[in-house]
Design goal:
Shape: globular
Strand content: 5-15%
Number of strands: 5
Number of helices: 19
Radius of gyration: 23 Å
Structural class: alpha/beta
Number of domains: 3
Strand order of the largest sheet: 3-2-1-4-5
Order of helices and strands: EHEHEHEHEHHHHHHHHHHHHHHH
CATH superfamily of the largest domain: DNA Cyclobutane Dipyrimidine Photolyase, subunit A, domain 3
Helix content: 40-55%
Distance between the termini: 65 Å
Largest sheet: 5 strands, parallel
Oligomer: single chain
CATH topology of the largest domain: DNA Cyclobutane Dipyrimidine Photolyase, subunit A, domain 3
Length: 445
């Protein structure tokens, strides 16, 4: 008999409870990854597809080194998984839990269907430090503000220790049919716009651990002091590693604790990630609907395609915004401080719906996930959990003076900034944004 491990956003061997359960069962193991084309599954953006290709290639190689195998299939997961179970004559299927609404519905239905067919099915906690249903307010609800949420998390039992990776994984003699990874065409070819991604990143589990070790050995010392300075280079670089599950939050948590360094500020960012996922668990339409429904009354003007295009391509004439948008296009990430500034400019100076910005980031970020991406956009817009007040409008010129006073970041990514005329007047558009937000306030009165 055979056990199947259904990999999703947990592309690693170490600290993978589903894989550990399958190996401990003592039967041959097949790894399965499904490129899900189900209607309710949000299609991956271009940068995410690039990362997925390389992370799957790494996972397949690491499984083969230990005697295992990775089967790739494309299609509706609710149909593909039972078919692979049948093809492999598998007696058990294991996976790590997901927390988005459609994913949970699919997993629940699949678990029931497979069990009806006599297949053992088990799911495990692997992607979050704290399961969403374990963190509750005193009245039994869920938290809408980060600080009390994280305080409540820290009063729960400490996150479990990471599991070691299996030394040996035995594959069955005969494997089910597998797609070829190249046939999925996840990599851009015509044109090939991924040169900057290749320069910047090395996806995969081993590279993820190298980055974690390097950050804790060096950059974390300056993290609290310089994390808001985009030219300082002290960000962790771990967000895509955690988004794809090449690292688990338990590994990051315990490595930080064992470092002997002051990692409280850094770990609070891991807490922010948890907060985003807990929010998505309770609001599965986070990327399309305002969490604070009173913001449905916001009077978005008619879309302005030219302004949106200028923002997307770093041609607004606002130096810090343009630098950030060009960094995003080249590297697939943007410094967090600059992300907030660029998002605020789109929403509150250009008066473009936050959903348009979220869609662009979804397509261009290598670390875009279904929780953090819309959660952070709604935070900036003022429509989300623990949101910035509606009147908080980041002034990109003031932000540049404070966090990039020597223009090191701006000159790197937007050296022609002085030659691009500003798209809008920051003062006039700020006043227009405040007037529009007043309409939201009046709608609540």
């Amino acid at each position: 008999m055979t056990s199947i491990v259904w990999f999703r956003d947990d592309l690693r061997l170490a600290d993978n409870p589903a894989l550990r359960a399958a190996v401990d069962r003592g039967e041959p193991v097949i790894g399965l990854y499904v490129l899900d084309t189900s209607e309710k599954v949000r299609p991956l953006g271009g940068a995410a597809r690039w990362w997925l290709h390389h992370s799957l290639a790494d996972l397949g190689e690491r499984l083969r080194e230990r005697g295992g195998a990775l089967v790739l299939r494309r299609g509706r997961a609710r149909e593909v998984v039972p078919q692979v179970v049948q093809d492999a004559a598998a007696s058990a299927v294991f996976w790590n839990r997901r927390y988005g609404g459609p994913a949970r519905e699919m997993d629940t239905a699949l678990k029931a269907r497979l069990r009806d067919d006599g297949v053992e099915v088990a799911s495990f906690a692997a992607s979050l430090l704290f399961e969403p249903w374990t963190v509750r307010t005193g009245s039994g609800g869920h938290y809408a503000v980060f600080t009390p949420f994280w305080r409540a998390c820290l009063h729960l039992p400490a996150p479990r220790a990471p599991l070691p990776e299996p030394r040996e994984i035995v594959a069955p003699q005969t494997l089910p049919r597998s797609d070829a990874l190249d046939d999925w065409a996840l990599l851009p070819t015509n044109p090939d716009w991924a040169g900057g991604l290749r320069e910047t990143w090395e996806p995969g589990e081993i590279a993820a651990h190298r980055r974690l070790d390097a950050f804790l050995a060096d950059d974390v010392d300056d993290y609290d002091r310089a994390r808001d300075e985009p030219a300082a280079g002290v960000t962790s670089g771990l967000s895509p590693r955690m988004r794809w599950g090449e690292l688990s939050p338990h590994q990051v948590w315990h490595a930080a604790a064992a470092s002997g360094k002051d990692t409280e500020r850094f770990l609070s960012e891991i807490g922010w990630r948890e907060f985003a996922w807990h929010t998505l668990f309770h609001a599965p339409d986070l990327h399309t609907e305002n969490l604070r429904r009173e913001f449905d009354a916001f009077p978005w003007p008619r879309p302005h395609p030219a302004a949106l295009h200028a923002w997307q391509h770093g041609r607004t004439g606002i130096a810090l915004v343009d630098a950030g948008m060009r960094e995003l296009w080249h590297t697939g990430v943007m410094h967090n401080r600059v992300r907030m500034v660029a998002a605020s400019f789109l929403i509150k100076n250009l008066l473009i719906d936050w959903r348009r910005g979220e869609e662009w980031f979804w397509d261009t970020l290598v670390d875009a996930d279904e929780a953090a991406n819309p959660f952070n956009w709604q935070w900036v817009a003022g429509s989300g959990a623990d949101a910035a007040p509606y009147f908080r409008i980041f002034n990109p010129e003031t932000q540049a003076q404070k966090f990039d006073p020597q223009h090191r970041y701006i000159d790197r990514w937007a050296p022609d900034w002085a030659d691009v005329p500003p798209l809008v007047d920051l003062g006039d558009t700020r006043r227009a944004a405040l007037a529009a937000y007043d309409e939201v306030k009046r709608s609540r009165a």
